[in-house]
Amino acid sequence: MRRIAWLGGLALLAAAAFAGVTHGLPDPRPLRDPAWVQQRFQLPQWTPLEQVGPQAVRAILLSEDDTFYHNHGVRMDQLGPAAWEDLLALRYKRGASSLTQQVVKNAFLGEQKSLSRKLKELWLAHQAAALVPKKRLLEDYLNLAEWGPHKERGIAFAAQFCFGKAPAQLNAKDGALLSWLLPDPRHRALWIRRGQLPERARRHIALLLGRLQDEGSLDATQAAALAAQPFAFERNPGPPLAPDTDDEGDDE
Q1: What 8-state DSSP symbol labels residue 111?
Q2: CATH code, 187
Q3: Looking at the domain assignment, is residue 14 inside a domain?
Q4: Residues paired with residue 146 on neighbouring β-strands, in sequence order
Q5: What pLDDT, on a 0 to 100 scale, did the predictor assign at position 61?
Q6: Domains in the chain, number
């Protein structure tokens, strides 16, 4: 009985702490309105989802959140492993964020890493998944994500900066590279300017092209052709110019 009472007390304390953290959080429904998001972040342009190459979008989704269309804003399969990794590291190391979590973090919470912010993010993501259509959340994500060395946002910037293309011209390999940039664009985008990619980027791209082929988004001929085609910015597609150590920061 004492153990049951003790566990019950802990549960009540956890519930009270969660309620305190999530009290007064913003309503995520404005994320439905592209004009609100664009104005809030003073974005120079907005790219509708229909104007982004669909295979590029699929590659980004496979990398960032392959459960996006099935989850309720939170990746339950990742929460346990992430919490265990944080516990072993004795610090907030791994975020295990869903795409929806990244949207609400960008829109409402900022970049500070803390347990209280993570709880707010989880709750807001759950609410957003219930109140905002998936299409709107994905479009918000593509326009809010940082893709450049100076915190530049938006898929239109990314397409022009990396490939000299419009978003509609992006293919699956382009999307795979953009997904590699996402965890640390401030450092990884510098490889684009150097005209060469590190081996870990090539491995990431090859893995995603393989996954796209496995699921039927690409056939074998398409995947092979994309894999063999260098990016326009590559001056020397051979071994990396420098040791691949410049982007080893914690990913979220």
Answers
A1: S
A2: 1.10.3810.10
A3: no
A4: 153
A5: 97
A6: 1
Distance between CA 13 and CA 93 in Å, rounded? 25
The span from the CA of 177 to the CA of 204, in Å, is 8
Residue 199 lies in a domain: yes
Could you give the angle at the alpha carbon of 66 between the alpha carbons of 60 and 71, nearest 5°?
130
CA 54 to chain centre: 17
Q: Which domain holds residue 149?
A: 35-228
In a domain, 66, yes or no: yes
Helices first, then strands: H and E counts in the chain? 12, 0
Q: What is the CA radius of gyration of the chain?
A: 20
Q: What is the mean pLDDT of the chain?
A: 83
CB distance 178 to 158 below 8 Å: yes
pLDDT in tens, 175-200: 999 999 998 999 999 999 999 999 99
Residue 18 pLDDT level (bands cut at 50, 70, 90): very low
- The string of pLDDT tens digits covering residues 197-209 is 999 999 999 999 9
Residue 98 belongs to some domain of the structure: yes
